[in-house]
Sequence to fold (233 residues):
Amino acid sequence: MARVCVFDVNETLLDLRALDPVFERHFGRADLRRAWFGQLLQSALVSTVTGPYVDFGRIGRAAFEMVAAREGIELRAEAVEAVMAGMRELPPHPDVAPALSRLRAAGFRLASLTNSVRAVAEAQLTNAGLAGAFEAILSADEAGRLKPAPEPYRYAAERLGVPIGEIRLVAAHAWDVAGALRAGAAAAFVARPGMVLDPLAPVPDVVGRDLLEVAEGIVAVEGSSRGEPSPGG
Fold:
């Protein structure tokens, strides 16, 4: 049974759409937020597969250079810093607090696991009012490889003192879910708008339209380990 839920942070818990006004103000186009974050994820995957290790913050800055070059935009240092500062101030999605409360009330242990370095993750979750919900705020940086490589998920299990099969990664990214499942963990997918599962990857046993629906699904799947009745049972 996977009684430890480990949450991805960006997009899963925190709403990146809050950066749209920052991109509009400094780059003249709100839609470049998606282009930048997509490039960030792509570059992170390339770095993880090919090596050597580069931390998520450095990759994020490099992604700005790539997007600016592609779009023919002058890249100003103050614009980059404004976005990076905004990343630390992201609000939580409205379903996050009640979902975390539901899982804690059902007896689950909660932690977070992000590709961001620990200082950024701690600032993000503290500013979002969520840090107190987690017994540990973990960073893939401490494993020396980024998700979806297996090392971060194994590192999380080791830090939390449980076998890899007893943690469940909760994420809104198909690649993160696939990485967790292939590392031996359980997983749950949050189908945020525009997010879909990868048909070439294993399918998690919990999928929901938002985090509260996912939380209810986790309780239903794992409830028998605490003697809780399943819905309709």
Remarks:
- The domain at 4-14+90-226 is CATH 3.40.50.1000 (Rossmann fold).
- The two ends are 19 Å apart (CA to CA).
